Amino acid sequence: MSALTAVPANILAAGTNNGAFVTPSISYAAIAPILIVLAAACVGVLFEAVLPRGQRFYAQVALTLAALLAAFIDVIAIRGHSVVTASRAIAIDGTSLFLQGTILVLGALAVLLLAERGVEPGSAIVAQAAVVVGSPADRRLASSDRVQTEIFPLALFAVGGMLIFPAANNLLLMFVALEVLSLPLYLMAGLSRRRRLLSQEAAIKYFLLGAFASAFFLYGVALLYGYADSANLSDILRAQNTSTQSDTLLYLGFGLLIVGLLFKAGIAPFHSWTPDVYQGSPTPVTAFMASCTKIAAFGAILRVLYVGFSVSSWNWRPIIWTVAIASIAVGAVVGLTQTDVKRILAYSSIAHAGFILMAVLAQNAQGQMDVSGLSSSLFYLAAYGLTTIAAFGMVTLVRDGNGEATHLSQWSGLARRSPLFAVTFTFLLLAFAGIPLTSGFTGKFVVFRAAYHSAAPLVVIALIGSAIAAFFYLRIVVMMFFAEPAEDGPSVVIPSALSSIAITVGTGATLVLGVFPQPLLDLADHAAKLRG
Amino acid sequence: MNAAHGIQSAAWLLVVLPALSAAFLLLMGRRADKWGHLLGAIVPVVLFGYAAMLFFSIKSESGQGRIRDLHLFNWIPVGGFNVDVGFQIDPLSLTFVLLITGVGSLIHIYSVGYMSHDEGRRRFFGYLNLFIAAMLLLVLADNYLTLYVGWEGVGLASYLLIAYYYNRDSAATAAKKAFIANRVGDVGLSIAIMLMFAYLGTTSFNGVFAGAGNLSHGVVTAIALMLLLGACGKSGQFPLQTWLPDAMEGPTPVSALIHAATMVTAGVYLIARSAPLFNLTETGRTVVTIVGAITLLYGCVCAFGQDDLKKVLAYSTVSQIGYMFLAVGLGPGVYAIGILHLVGHGFFKAALFLSAGSVMHAMNDRIDMRRFGGLAKVMPITYGVFVCGYLAIIGFPFATGYFTKDKIIESAFDKGGTSGWILGLAALLGAALTAFYMTRALLMTFHGAKRWEDDVHPHEAPRTMTVPMILLGFLALVGGGALTFGGGLQNWLEPVVGKPEEAGVHTISPTVLLALTLVVVAGGVAGAYLVFGRRPVPVTQPAGSPITVAARRNLYADAFNESVLMRPGQWLVRGLVFFDNKGVDGAVNSVAAGFGGGSGRLRRIQTGFVRSYALSMFAGAAAVLAVLLAVRFS
Predict the structure, then answer these.
(1) What is the 3-state secondary structure (H, E, C) of B17-54?
(2) Which pLDDT does position B236 carry in this prediction?
């Protein structure tokens, strides 16, 4: 921990090598979880080629879950590792292992939702993506149990990218990871079985805007390379003390880089894709994006800020202040008038991204970036991800003849049809609102506490934002419990064990981390170490 | 201070038993209607038996050994603040326990007959038991905070019982009035407790009394005056007296037990209990005597303007408690006399109320004395009991008041100086007025021509009512003598309130004063006889002199409260409601509307067109770079 806030030289203990190309030494043990996931993804692609169609679904599900589980076990096995390997491109330290573990757990839960076939024959995934929407073939396939099983290897590739993203110590590698995680997501967003046009529109929007954001990112990397003569984060940090280049390069490079990252994290004003994509994507994919992608993106932001730009924190603090406020305001205020449950959760995620971002403003008494910001955002990310998976998992269960019924008016009186569902969903909403005895409260509390000393006004704004956002959470509760049920309203489908497990784990974790959060808080404290 | 032992350690039953019985009666609902009243009536009898055993176990000790402490549990352990719940069993509290359970038992038994035709009899007994529990907690507490719990508990029971006929508008209003007047007093008591905690860090009697000597005079006086405010609220003393006459809206046994014999004397108990505090502040004691003197005269004057028998008795209670305040305000040595009058008053006022209840019972719940008359022959037992109470209250030789009230008059004169004369003369005048209004009530109710309405057929009450009445009538006659025989009660109370002082020099020789008192009392009786005994009583109220009118309207105290306190209060409330609706709610609602409108406008940015999303991202990125460059070049 002290290494983090000490002078940059400590962070840069690893030597540099100028000149001749040296074969990089790679610590395979440290990157084994990444390799496991990526290898399984390749095997999944082979499955598509060699297995008969009937066997693919279960084989893919089994392979994917097994790979994620194995990678998770491996992450646990190499806990405490702290190495910078592969030409200092990958840093496996406490923070990256914590985030990788979280992503693997949440990814596995999202895959459980993806594999759910109890609520819809065939699952929420389209039978054949290449068939024209509305064509006779499309109508025929809609009710079949065929599935575009490529989604599972795609999910694994995305997870692989997400594992590298927060561990990348080199901006070029970070860019590669960004694309590895993004490209599968663009595809996955378009694979909805119902409302396919909306889904495809979401995918196109996500792709276009993602490409746009990637351009910003890449341009930023280029400018930073020009400034520091290296794309390595620790080199960039050192260059801020030694470089003779113009500072303008540094600031512009940083600005463009951070825009690309803020886009992935869904922070205003780079959030505009979020509501459309969350709404259009198949709900299990939305769950995957809202939890795993957000965590990976924040992992990258944390690494860039803490490792690459900790000495210039006074220069970028105004930016973080502004976008955090913008994100909280947009999420809370625009969420008020939303009428679709998935869009409400999307705006909620924008507000939450603002809350998490506040943590990086935490400073110690010397005005240096404080490690409490790191550990509190780790906790918040894990807690929020688990609640999100459960919430989106539950959204998939409210159905009528046209598939998921996500319009708020359709949820009126749902408590009478299914009290258990309504109570559980209310609990998750209370967690989003940050009510005590839920993980949402603990998460907000640690983040606000971390940011309070150096950014008290922002904490006040965040509290006001929470209060505003509570309105639309409670509106859903009021709809479910106090409105008259509609005549032909939707019903709550009883899912198979897969979704049940995902929802139960997410809800249970929300409760446990609200009542008994100390073990995970300790773990996050312990894990809050970065190597440069 | 010795720890309680033997049967003393079961004293918690005194509170728990009636509380459980009350809870049981109130929670069982209709199922207990048939036998609930019997359970409710047995409880105080059992408690009285236990209290008598306690009495003998304490009596066998001597001096300070008679003060026993029973620690029950640790209630509030917060940092430096620590409140233990415990009971203090000593002569003072035991006197009250015996009075409450003894008179309480008789009144409970009486109520079995009195309420026999009432549908809510079980509820009534539930409330009565709740009252017994709270009142015993009040007098047994060994610290002010526990006392406060009992204090509020009796307030609640009183409120519930005044509003027992809750569908009667006047009863509901009277209950509210009692509650509000009591609250004013309760604020005083709570401030006193806070002051104790702030300056002494404790609320236990021992701690407060031990530490009070080190406090500045101002603080002690403030605590004493705040305690007095509390006492005034509970005991219906000036200026918080107006609720007590209205409280007669409750059933008559309630008037007898709560609003005459026990609860309303809690103020006297509080001051006597706080004797070590009041002993330290001359100012505090003087204010107590002033309050007592004013109230005793006020009660007398108002009583003679009333045509409602129970109201006469209620103002009489106000006045008699004024005597007690006067006594406890006179300071060391006179506390015991105040308590003496309190106990005696408990006997004779209960007897008077129960016979008034018996009259009501016979007269179809009518209580207007102008429609009574000539009841002595029809209801000889009731008449006899009323006469016993009558003799006791006016201080007829060797009846209770003769021993208790005359002592107060004597002590007031013995205070010496101008104040002694003023207080003494006020007390003497009060004695004459008491004789006057009580004679008036006696004559109008039991003598003269029958002025009954046609449908009334008065009859003597059933035995469940007459037996307790006879017992109380007997106590009213001889109780005072028995308690003072050989200085009995005064010596008994000595460990708590201090030694009775033998006045060195009497302002007026006791013999002369005694004769003087008897003369003015006889004058009062004769005056009333001349005015009311020799002429027929008009059935409708005559216009009357200005004094009579003022007395009927309780010297305009209600009018004063209404115009000075109630109306402005209502205006204030209306203003605040308006501010709340328009100001607070308006602000909240317009903030909400503002956010809603802002949300509606902001969501238009979310056009669904990817080109406008890209534009907003570009604008955002440009802003980020602009800010960074601004930081860079600033």
Answers:
(1) HHHHHHHHHHHHHHHHCCCHHHHHHHHHHHHHHHHHHH
(2) 87
